TrEMBL record:
InterPro entries: MFS_2, MFS_trans_sf, Na/Gal_symport, Na/Gal_symport_CS. GO terms for molecular function: symporter activity. It is found in: Cell membrane. One of its GO terms (biological process) is carbohydrate transport. It comes from uncultured Microbacterium sp. The gene is uidB. Keywords: Cell membrane, Membrane, Transmembrane, Transmembrane helix. This is Glucuronide transporter. Gene3D superfamilies: MFS general substrate transporter like domains.
């Protein structure tokens, strides 16, 4: 059941400052999240002096913990409501500053011996992950409480995407080229994360004061037995989870060692900035053409195409001689095309599985479906980051060395190219057997609409609308 509180704007449209303010929240999120994704491994190996193998295990353990932290945070959020501040905004108000300060602590490992440093790194990164979940999950859910209008939710989804892209590009253009062996990297990371505390808190407060909750949802309680029954009967969801897990493993391996590849294999670290600019252009270009491509070929075909592009890009990255810099760079660009295309379509596919589950069981279990999908993606992220670090360790990577050995370069190339290509190939094979085509989904949505209308429900699903428009604003992106 959904109860709407009257909006101050009679048209129901969100004001520009509200949309921009919501996007500012995801920019703040990514000051912590993307910074850790891009730089934490290189910080552990090159600054803190933690071995690549130990860092890989750390990333695996803590990121799996983080996946469970999402479930814990979701339960806390479900049980929270403040009459004055609402259900989700209190987490942004009270959780944002601890999150940003924990980012500083994570990038400030003291030199207290190998065991002491590892213990400190485990505790701070785990605390950062939990704090991130307690802020990001309410933030993602906030969009659904701001408006019931699908078009307005799409605006919020676009705003958060732009916020995340701008932060990622800024880090790639201005910070990544500075990560060189001859620089005082600890001072660099300390200054950067302290600056992010100020900037991030301002952005979070912008979101808090402009994003108001106008829709209150009473979420139906689903038992554990019902949850497993729903998941067991949803074959499309299970196959999508498996394919997404594998693809994320390859994607995170690439993003984790991309800096190493450009710096230590190609010796062309300034190209990181160029790659970040290319990524921005690709994202907006694909956003303009993907809807037309989906209408013509379908979401499953688009997902498979993106994975295939990733395969080609990964093989080029792995096989290119270091002297052929622009060939290797073109491989990285192809990987970015594949990643962007898959990430644009995977959430639409996830939304389709919600309707399939409702059609199959009669229960619309968006929460448990979203939780499982998010969990598998986060575990894929954990495995990908760990495998990348293990590849560095197997190759014999030496932190701070001006020139790496051939075996170390091979390990970096394997993590940046071979692993993403193999992962994408497996993802393609799995998605080939994905049974929920666009045509079948339209039939299912129309059938659900007829059932709801027959029951006399107030809000039947409009079979002419894609559920992706509704889910896009509620999604939690794992970049």
């Amino acid at each position: 059941m959904t109860t709407a509180i009257p909006l101050t704007d009679s048209t129901g449209r969100l004001k520009l400052r509200t949309v921009v303010g919501y996007g500012a929240g995801d920019a703040a999120n990514n000051l912590a999240f993307t910074t850790a994704t891009m730089f934490l491994l290189v910080y552990y190996t090159d600054v803190a002096g933690i071995s690549a193998a130990a860092a890989g295990t750390l990333l695996l353990v803590v990121r799996v913990f983080d996946a469970f932290a999402d479930i814990f945070a979701g339960r806390i959020v479900d049980r929270t409501f403040n009459k004055r501040l609402g259900k989700f905004r209190p987490f942004i108000l009270f959780g944002s500053l601890p999150l940003l300060l924990l980012s500083v602590a994570t990038f400030s490992v003291p030199q207290i011996g190998e065991s002491g440093m590892l213990l400190y790194a485990y505790l701070t990164y785990a605390a950062l992950g939990l704090a991130y979940s307690l802020v990001n999950i309410p933030y993602g859910s906030l969009a659904g409480a701001m408006t019931r209008n699908a078009g307005e939710r799409a605006k919020l989804a676009s705003a958060r995407t732009v916020g995340a892209i701008l932060v990622g590009a800024t880090l790639g253009i201005f910070v990544a080229p500075l990560i060189t062996p001859d620089r005082d990297l600890q001072s660099l990371f300390t200054a950067m994360t302290l600056g992010f505390v100020v900037v991030g808190f301002v952005l979070y407060m912008w979101t808090f004061f402009t994003a108001k909750e106008t829709v209150v949802r009473d979420v139906p309680k689903v038992s554990v037995r019902q949850s497993f029954a729903i998941l067991k009967s949803n074959k499309p969801l299970l196959m999508l989870c498996l394919s997404s897990f594998v693809f994320l493993t390859g994607m995170l391996a690439l993003s984790t060692v991309q800096l190493y590849y450009l710096r230590d294999v190609l010796h062309a670290l300034p190209l990181y900035a160029a790659l970040s600019i290319v990524q921005i252009v690709l994202t907006f270009a694909l956003a303009a053409v993907v809807p037309a491509l989906v209408r013509r070929f379908g979401k499953r075909a688009g997902y498979a195409t993106g994975s295939s592009v990733m395969i080609a890009g990964g093989l080029i990255v792995f096989l290119s001689p270091p002297s052929m810099i622009w060939l290797a760079f073109s491989g990285l660009v192809l990987c970015q095309v594949g990643v962007a295309l898959v990430n644009m379509l995977v959430w639409a596919l996830e939304a389709d599985t919600v309707e399939y589950g409702e059609w199959k069981t009669g229960v619309r279990a968006e929460g448990i479906i979203y939780a499982l999908f998010s969990f598998t993606r986060k575990t894929g992220q954990a495995v990908g980051g760990a495998l990348a670090a293990y590849a560095l360790a197997i190759g014999g990577y030496v932190a701070g060395a001006e020139v790496q050995s051939e075996s170390a370069e091979w390990g970096i190339r394997a993590a940046a190219g071979l692993l993403p290509a193999v992962a994408a190939l497996i993802a393609v094979v799995i998605i080939f057997f994905y049974p929920l085509t666009d045509a079948r989904h339209r039939e299912i949505v129309a059938d659900i609409a007829r059932r709801r209308e027959a029951r006399g429900e107030d809000e039947p699903i409009d079979p002419t609308l894609s559920s992706a428009a509704f889910r896009a604003a509620d999604r939690k992106d794992i970049r």
